[in-house]
Amino acid sequence: MPTADAMPPNTFVPAPPEVHSPLGPRIGRGIAFTALAFVGLILVAAFVGGILSAA
């Protein structure tokens, strides 16, 4: 994976919560966190499944 220095400078700068969700910053941030956790869980499951199938 590229390091943070090699990536575009705005990669890790979130937009204001109002842009993401009209429901409010707290709900918008919760939705974003849930989506990130869900994607992370899928990546971990795929990684573990790949190791188990390769072993």
Topology record:
Elements: H1 17-20, H2 25-54
Describe the protein in words:
- With 55 residues, the chain is mostly helical.
- It has a domain at 24-54.
- It contains two helices and no strands.
- The protein has helices spanning 17-20, 25-54.
- The longest helix has 30 residues, at 25-54.
- The two termini are 24 Å apart.
- The mean pLDDT is 73.
Summarize this structure as a short list of keywords or feature phrases.
55 residues, 2 helices
Question: What is the helical fraction, as a range of percent?
Answer: 55-70%
Instruction: Tell me the fraction of residues in β-strands, as a range.
Output: under 5%
Tally of strands: 0
Q: Indicate the multimeric state.
A: single chain
Structural class: mainly alpha
Largest sheet: none
H/I helix tally:
2
Keywords: Membrane, Transmembrane, Transmembrane helix
Transmembrane segments: 31-52
